[in-house]
Write a structure and sequence with these properties.
Blueprint: H1 2-17, H2 21-25, H3 30-40, H4 43-53, H5 57-60, H6 67-75, H7 79-88, H8 93-97, H9 100-112, H10 115-126, H11 144-151, H12 155-171, H13 178-190, H14 193-203, H15 206-209, H16 215-227
């Protein structure tokens, strides 16, 4: 009896929120109410909330109060909805990864995405030139160094772009996410000894400990031990 009453109250609440959901999502207290509604509402109601939020996901992605709701919406998103969300991040992946909250959303989308969608997010961090090439996943080479060689791109240009993406992220200490570990691993596998040493020096100490929970992070840890100074 209580459950049916709860469902009815949630439906009524969502009806009253209609047209104001993006504003509610960014509010400290009301965003929690909306999260509860999304958790227990029907799929049709959840889809309606997603549709209303869709034009605002980018601004909500780095909102401290909205981040949990955005993650919840992604967890329950259809394949089409997730694809639409990831496409909406285009051009903003690097800037969101420099944001403590925004980076959580990008990582969540990265974890939920398929191989093509993961590549779509990563390419933006690798090179502006690479973004011009479609269907990169169809290329058999899995390492970035092999991909840019096959496409005839300048490795130095790609490395410069990657360094410009990586440095601000490391400076802010945002290092827990697997998408960042993937980028770092690709960079270190291509960079010259001096450039790699600069990154390794930044990663030594507490930052490195926070990375070893992922496959790429543990590989980076081994590289740091191998190539880092005794200090």
């Amino acid at each position: 009896m209580f459950f049916f009453l709860l469902i009815r109250l949630i439906s009524e609440a969502l009806q009253k929120m209609k047209g104001k959901i993006p504003e509610i999502a960014g509010s400290h207290v009301s965003s929690r109410v909306l999260q509860t509604c999304v958790k227990y509402c029907s799929q049709a109601e959840r889809d309606a909330v997603f549709e209303e939020l869709q034009p605002h996901f980018l601004s909500l992605a780095d909102n401290t109060y909205a981040v949990h709701l955005v993650k919840k919406m992604l967890d329950n998103a259809s394949k089409k909805q997730l694809a639409g969300f990831i496409s909406a991040l285009h051009g903003h992946v690097a800037s969101l990864l420099r944001h403590m909250v925004g980076s959580v959303v990008v990582e969540h989308a990265y974890q939920l995405g398929n191989a093509t969608q993961k590549q779509e997010l990563l390419v933006e961090l690798y090179s502006t030139e690479l973004q011009l090439f479609k269907n990169l996943v169809s290329i058999k080479e899995s390492r970035l160094v092999d991909v840019i060689s096959k496409l005839g791109l300048q490795k130095a240009s790609v490395l410069r772009h990657m360094a410009s993406v990586i440095q601000p992220i490391l400076e802010k200490g945002i290092i827990d996410h697997s998408i960042i570990h993937r980028v770092l691993m690709e960079y270190l596998s291509m960079a010259d000894k001096s450039s790699a040493a600069d990154i390794i020096q930044q990663l030594s100490g507490p930052l490195l400990v926070r990375m070893i929970h992922t496959r790429d992070g543990s590989k980076i840890g081994m590289l740091c031990v191998k190539h880092g100074s005794a200090k």
